[in-house]
Design brief:
heterooctamer; A alpha+beta (about 70); B alpha/beta (about 350); C alpha/beta (about 250); D alpha/beta (about 180); A: about 70 residues; alpha+beta; Alpha-Beta Plaits; two-stranded antiparallel ribbon; two-stranded antiparallel sheet; D: about 180 residues; alpha/beta; Pyruvate-ferredoxin Oxidoreductase, domain 3; six-stranded mixed β-sheet; globular; binds thiamine diphosphate; binds iron/sulfur cluster; binds magnesium ion
Chain lengths: ~70, ~350, ~250, ~180, ~350, ~250, ~180, ~70
């Protein structure tokens, strides 16, 4: 059974640059439809299950918007 | 006269300079002046002139020194902190008796401040912010058209008196668009070959030397007095100002320049509609300051208000003009705040009643 | 659940003012993380330049000072000589460090001042709207090089690591890339090493980071990164240009 | 004395500045006094851009104003920030695609919500939302003649990009139509 | 009190600064200031302080910014052209509200000028030669003893009001030797830990930030008004001047400062022997200027003469002080020429008769 | 009798203001002779720095301008772009060129400005009375390094040729010695070549000359020369550091 | 009111500045007001150095003067330049080794020519010529007491260089002797 | 018979630095006893006969005080 991980993207910080989406080897991330208060489409995790907690999204994110937790 | 063109002040003054024959421009980027350097970057090469982004404001003003020493029509531009860095160079250019044009698109200060329009470099501009005994003519535009027109004017004054000339604009004048018309022709450049570098002819006895070092105080004193004789000539010929609503005796005289004066005009108009007579004297040359014109305009008024976008600098010149002959007050905003016409109307109304 | 990665305490909670996808943010994070990991947030003093990073005084959680354009190394000199117990760093753009600040940079390096210089090279003046920088590539367009940079007229892209490495005194000079997660992980090591060297009073540390300016390059963040990989890295090759620590080890 | 003060605001990239410029340009062509003053500088980074435009029968004093006759709000933050500053008798033209109508409406202020993005999409150029706004603005205020704006646009784009010109002119027309039909 | 020591002004002020606790000094050589930097080079290391010759004046003032931000007693010195280069930095230090001391051993200007004593940087010093709304207190010594005494005084003022302070000397004061006595003790430094950098404690919530960027004009306006509130306090507490021969009603009032005032004193004495009563008001703080003291001293006199070693700068402050209440005249020499007592005696006699 | 050697027409008849035995005078003569021999006195514009050579505007018989301390390369940029038909040269000391003028030097070199820079390295600030220069040797005393230059604190002697040679663009960078008649004859060739290259519009020419300052070193002229040979030449080795002309020949 | 203005001038290296300094120092020790102001700067390069010293009963106004009571001229150019500026009743003390007496002597000015170099050589230190001048100067003017100068010299040199001290004191004495014997 | 040369030192320029004396392979140069108007002992040619006109003195002289003529 896969280790459980949780990834959270803080919409307050996210600017929808997409660098995390590019970084994710699992394709777990995608833009949300809505705009956040800054006028950007924030990123959401569309597949928490697939996420391995590898942290590459965190590494890529210029706005330190991502938190990754593991069990 | 050409067509009206809607242009930013920063671009209009650059275009006017090129049309007036400026073919050398050296500067360093800074907000809110950057459209000026960018316009020059695009257009100067097309005009066959030299555009160079210097490595700093210090380098830029010294490149200007070099081009001016060769008798070129040369310009630089910057904004407040960058203008501070140019002070040593400006003092040299003044001392070397070289014509050059320096545009200051002022921003908020002191320090890094901000990029909002301000008039807080008044003292620096009008009292020779660099070291030593010198002044520079200072032209203060109040619209994009006037800003543009001051480029050729600045070159003419610079060449007539062999002095650097400062155009004293601000972020608002630089950034805003207004209709501009460029004249069809410009005064030709004064021939610099009697003193400029690179003009030595084969077999000529004398080389040209540009220098500001005069080790013997008596000689430097003499040179300074010659410089100040030119300043007297400038005071005689070049003082410029606008009188607005001054034909009938006003109860209040406002002295204000540049961007601030525009807002004052709106207030003066509004008060006129209320039946309150307020006149405006707008200095266009800040140095030499129109002392006499201010004193004359103040005759019979209740109070003279100086309205500035700073904590009170030109108001000293106003007091020097009046020499106690009239009560004065200062109305200012700092930090890059600009009066709204409504605010100013209310303030002036307060003094009028 | 245990947190494995989260916003570092080395950064404040303020939202960064950089454009979406601008790698200034990555550089910030690496510095913040390194300060946190080395436990120096309380004894670090950072210098915000004039440039897009001018607001960095709001972003790093250590003591901060905002200084005149290009003069960060001089201010850092005053700081570190006043507070030798503190770790002093500057954060500077290419315009700031390599144009107006060239003299201050070279001389602080030559004095081997015990400071860390983070140099964010994005080949452009970001803050003021895309003017040519000393590091702008040959032929690259900028608002003040509208026809592309003509190196015959305005010079070639300034390579600061190469230039500074000719000096005898500076301790550690390196160039890293922020253009992929892998590069970023490497960059992190350089940042941390630079701080560590300052803690050990080794002297001048210079970490150039190849970055992007999506806004002024007119590219989206991903394309900007790709472009930089292709165009900038060959001109500004990552690597260690001087490491007196390693030299000493070699010699021993 | 007829003076119209117009503030256009939106996210960077939505083209708020151009709306103001087209109005100012047209005003100038019609012999009016005009000023156009953008917000500028580092606040731009990721934030909102706005521009103040004044069109008047007489020389314009301050190009800066705090209260305006017309607000063109291309996004919610702009509407939130500037709506309270619209004068009695004034107009708010907002981007239905990104703004919800204010809960408390000022008494004497007209509010019209135009689906800029949708209309622009229908024309085939999602970026022409600002041109839709120009059409509506000119229609509702009459501050300048639509033909003057179109003339200017034609001069600007005729040679460089005839396709874009066509789209822009259509966008203006659709904006005007919408405004006529939905006048508050 | 220690013994009398015969010292150059440049060395005396350096020694006094060290005694007063200055432990950080950054500067760049320039005549006629170089003995100051050289003295610091020798003595500062012995005092356990930091001496560093900067790569330029621009670098030096920014090193001062760094040390001041850490709450150190820090000084720099230069002469006119070098002071021009420091203007951006001084504007920042003022805007950041940091204490620091800047010594200007003036020389002849503008441009490279010469190295003779002059007072032509008066405007620059008193009107915040850098950009934006700010002033710096300016102390003007007239003897080597006073020059030395101004080092501790400058630090005290700098710290009390968190402002850079300028000591306005000249080549003569720097180069000449006179007897000096140093006091036994000096006022302790004001604790800077509430704002200085490097004072953050483990777990403390707030980091210290030194900054002059206030992007919102309303905030910069507010900051500027806070700064100017301090200036009001300085005006209230720190105005200094000397009254010489003013107890009996003089017929002529001379206003003069620094080196010029010394010569004036000789002339006043000489004229007193002839029975001509001339008084001297010597401003010691040039900013804030003793407007009121000048106005009071001018009561009942025939004429107010301003004597300066320049083409007329302080004379504006004198006219501002008098606001037309008295006739004025200006007596100056440019280029680094210094009046002889005989010359000046004759000139003043001319006005008295 | 025919004259085989006499005071060059490239110099005016004014007595030089340098101290007895100061090699500034030799540098002057080489420049004057080269101008005369190349026939460019009428089309040369020289720049006098701030330094002992400040009065150089009285000594060279071409057009001259005296400029702010350290800014000669910037002024030269303005001159040469105004008068591309003229040959523009600067004459600068080590304080002028390598301390306050570092940024201007590096950037003019990087732009490959068509100017000739004569750099007189005497390891000291001569004019102002013997303060430390960027080129002051390790341990060497100066009025502002009274206990000898501590390179750990104030940095090592700046080697400008080495530093500038890292740049891609500058054309010709060389260091020569003025310390013996033989060296002087070699130096003359470098001076002339540099001028020649400017005539050919090749760009930036940099001729560093190792000189002496008998007065501030506290030595008589002969001892100063010997000392410089022993102490300065090893730190500042003469040689050609960059010669794009030769590179091109090599390549062809 | 007793004020003495002394100008000492010579080639750089002849020690003119030190003559002034010793007089000023002694004046200070005797409770007088003194100033000492050297010429400085690039004129020094190879040229002449001079120093203006004032010793007075009351505070000294200007330390600069154009006319002087005493001129110590260590070389010909100095004598040529400054001799015309010596006041009536004043004194010129010149270096016989390097100066020829002026052809036109001012009426009321004493002129004494001291073979400084020769006397110094005889003492065994050719560089002590300036000390010979100090001795003569003090003897002829009484501006300060010779003992005060000697006391200062002793403090300065006693530990550092007793041999030099001895030579300097001897030089002063020989200078004073010569002056006494050859008073004009 | 030796070729005739003449070497002249312009006392106006000479600062008595001695570099020419050092340079001369023939030992033809020496300081004069007298001081010139600048206060220096100027150099004189003590042996015109020995002089070969090699010009090394000219090359060494910082003050361009030397003229060399040949027949
Ligand atoms: C003295 C001075 N000159 C110019 C400026 C304007 N200015 C602000 S930032 C900047 C350049 C920023 O470019 P860079 O250092 O590359 O930083 P980036 O924004 O690219 O990160 C300039 C020229 C200034 N504030 N002060
Ligand atoms: C802005 C400025 N700073 C400082 C000075 C003072 N200054 C004059 S010459 C000089 C240094 C000269 O040294 P260098 O360049 O090595 O020339 P040298 O005299 O040794 O030939 C300095 C610092 C000045 N005139 N202007
Ligand atoms: S932690 Fe790794 S797998 Fe999970 S979302 Fe981030 S990049 Fe994708
Ligand atoms: S990298 Fe960060 S800012 Fe960019 S989209 Fe992902 S979470 Fe948002
Ligand atoms: S302008 Fe460029 S460097 Fe600046 S924040 Fe935006 S993307 Fe980053
Ligand atoms: S001080 Fe030194 S460099 Fe200057 S002229 Fe004299 S010897 Fe030459
Ligand atoms: S030319 Fe040669 S031989 Fe003759 S004096 Fe000169 S150095 Fe001596
Ligand atoms: S080298 Fe020249 S200056 Fe020196 S002694 Fe010989 S002739 Fe005179
Ligand atoms: Mg950049
Ligand atoms: Mg030197």
């Amino acid at each position: 059974m896969a280790k459980k991980t949780r990834i959270t993207i803080d919409e307050y910080y996210c600017k929808g640059c997409g660098l995390c989406i590019d970084a994710c080897p699992k394709g777990s991330l995608a833009f949300a439809e809505r705009l956040n208060e800054q006028g950007y489409h924030p990123v959401e995790c569309t597949d928490q299950e697939a996420c391995t907690g590898c942290s590459l999204c965190y590494v890529a994110c210029p706005d330190s918007a991502i938190t990754i937790e593991k069990e | 006269m050409g067509d009206k063109i809607l242009m930013k002040g920063n671009e209009a003054v650059a275009e006017a300079a090129i049309r007036a024959g400026c073919r050398h421009y050296y500067a360093y980027p800074i907000t809110p002046q950057s459209e000026l350097i960018e316009y020059m970057a695009r257009q100067m090469p097309l005009a066959g002139g030299t555009f160079l982004q210097a490595e700093s404001e210090v380098a830029a003003i010294n490149m200007v020194l070099g081009a001016a020493a060769c008798g070129m029509r040369v310009m630089t531009s910057s904004s407040s902190p960058g203008i501070s860095l140019k002070q040593e160079g400006i003092s040299y250019i003044a001392a070397c008796r070289l014509p050059a044009v320096i545009v200051n698109v002022q921003r908020g200060g002191p320090g890094l401040g901000n990029i909002a329009p301000m008039q807080a470099d008044y003292f620096q501009a009008t009292r020779g912010g660099g070291h030593g005994d010198y002044y520079t003519p200072v032209l203060s535009p109040s619209s994009v058209q006037e800003f543009a027109d001051m480029a050729p004017l600045a070159f003419e004054i610079a060449e007539e008196y062999r002095t650097p000339v400062v155009i004293f604009a601000d972020g608002m004048l630089g950034q805003m668009m207004e209709p501009v018309v460029f004249p069809d022709s410009y005064a030709p450049q004064k021939d610099p070959s009697a003193w400029a570098l690179g003009c030595k002819r084969e077999g000529e006895f004398c080389n040209h030397i540009i220098n500001s070092l005069f080790i013997d105080p008596a000689v430097l004193d003499q040179k300074t007095r010659e410089l100040f004789a030119e300043y007297d000539r400038i005071r005689q010929n070049e003082i410029r100002y606008e009188r607005y609503n001054l034909d009938e005796q006003p109860s209040i005289l406002v002295v204000s320049t540049g961007t601030a004066a525009r807002v004052v005009k709106s207030a003066v108009d509004a008060l006129a509609e209320e039946g309150i007579k307020v006149g405006l004297l707008r200095p266009i040359t800040l140095w030499p300051f129109p002392y006499q014109a201010v004193a004359e305009a103040a005759r019979g008024v209740k109070k003279v208000l100086t309205v500035e976008l700073n904590m009170g600098q030109m108001e000293q010149d106003v007091r020097l003009a009046l020499a106690g002959s009239c009560e004065t007050a200062f109305v200012g905003k700092a930090g890059g705040l600009v009066f709204t016409p409504e605010e100013l109307t209310e303030i002036i109304r307060g003094y009028a009643s | 659940m245990r947190i494995v990665a989260k916003r570092t305490r080395g950064l404040t909670s303020a939202r960064l003012t950089y454009c979406p996808g601008c790698l200034h943010g990555v550089a910030h994070r690496l510095i913040g993380e390194s300060m946190e990991e080395l436990g120096i947030i309380e004894r670090a003093i950072g210098i915000a330049p004039v440039g897009c990073a001018v607001f960095a005084y709001n972003f790093f959680s250590c003591d901060m000072i905002q200084v005149p354009h290009g003069r960060a190394p001089a201010v850092a000199t005053g700081l570190r000589r006043s507070r030798p117990d503190c770790v002093v760093f500057t954060y500077q753009g290419d315009g700031d460090l390599a144009a107006i600040g060239m003299a201050e940079t070279v001389h602080a390096a030559n004095r081997n001042e015990n400071i860390t210089v983070f140099f964010i090279n994005n080949a452009v003046y970001g803050m003021t709207g895309g003017q040519m920088a000393p590091t702008t590539l040959a032929g690259m367009k900028a608002t003040t090089a509208p026809y592309g940079r003509d190196v015959e007229d305005t010079g070639g892209p300034t390579r600061m690591c190469e230039l500074l490495a000719t000096l005898e005194m500076p301790w550690f000079i390196t160039r890293v890339s922020l253009l992929s997660p892998k590069d970023i992980l490497k960059a992190k090591k350089a940042v941390k090493k630079a701080f560590k060297n300052n803690l050990d009073k080794k002297g001048f540390q210079f970490v150039e980071m190849i970055s992007t300016c999506p806004t002024n390059w007119g590219m989206d963040p991903l394309r900007a990164r790709e472009w930089a990989k292709q165009e900038m890295l060959p001109v500004f090759p990552p690597g260690v240009y001087k490491d007196r620590g390693a030299e000493q080890e070699d010699a021993s | 004395m007829s003076t119209t003060r117009i503030l256009c605001a939106g996210f960077g990239g939505q083209g708020a500045l151009l709306i103001g410029k087209l109005v100012a340009q047209a005003g100038m062509m019609e012999g009016k006094h005009v000023t156009w003053l953008p917000s500028y500088g580092p606040e731009m980074r990721g934030g909102t851009a706005n521009v103040m435009t004044v069109v008047s029968d007489r020389p314009v004093g301050s190009p800066i104003f705090t209260k305006m006759d017309v607000l063109v709000a291309l996004n919610q933050p702009s509407q939130d920030k500037f709506a309270p500053r619209v004068k009695a008798g004034g107009l708010i033209l907002s981007n239905a695609s990104l703004c919800t109508p204010p809960s408390e409406k000022a008494q004497d202020v007209k509010y019209i919500s135009v689906p800029l993005t949708e209309i622009a999409e229908r024309i085939g150029n999602v970026k022409a939302g600002n041109m839709v706004a120009v059409g509506a603005l000119v229609e509702l205020t009459g501050v300048v003649g639509p033909e003057t704006v179109k003339h200017d646009l034609t001069e600007m784009l005729e040679k460089k990009n005839p396709k874009l010109l066509e789209q822009n002119l259509a966008a203006m027309d659709r904006g005007a139509e919408f405004a006529r039909e939905h006048q508050a």
